Amino acid sequence: MLKDLHSQGYSLLSIDSRGQTALHFGARHGFKDIVRYLIASAPASILDMVDNERGQTALHQAAQNRRRTVCCMLVAAGASLTIRDLQGNTPRALAQHADDQELAAYLESQEQFQTMVHEDLETTV
To answer: ANK repeats span which residues (predicted)?
Structure first.
């Protein structure tokens, strides 16, 4: 249905009344096909769009719901690991709160990598 709507001209960046995109929905529920399609077809800005209710990205919602594969997909696509929601939580913190230490450790390692890459980019500019 998402592909059909997109082919009819609907924006993949559309949000609902809570400010959530289809990526938030797909990430929260672990719908890998939806997440994969949106990563491939939507503007990259969708990765770091925050909702109105909690200030969360799709990565926050995937981490909070222990959607490991979706988290890996979002991280690989370039989703920020350092954005804090309205409660001050990063995706890693939400994985810890969900008692998924393996996911939290993965997100921490990727956070460190992402920070190093950003620092390297700043020094070359």
So the answer is: 18-39, 54-86
Can you give the pLDDT at residue 9?
Answer: 82
Q: How confident is the model at residue 122 (pLDDT cuts 50, 70, 90)?
A: low
From residue 96, how far is each of 24, 89, 104, 112, 125 by CA, in Å?
Answer: 20, 10, 6, 17, 35
Q: Calculate the alpha carbon distances from 93 to 4, 46, 78 in Å.
A: 36, 21, 18
DSSP state letters, 11-49: -TT---TTS--HHHHHHHHT-HHHHHHHHHHS-GGGGG-
Look at the block and give the residue holding tokens 């400010």. Answer: 19
Pull the structure tokens for residue 69: 């594969």
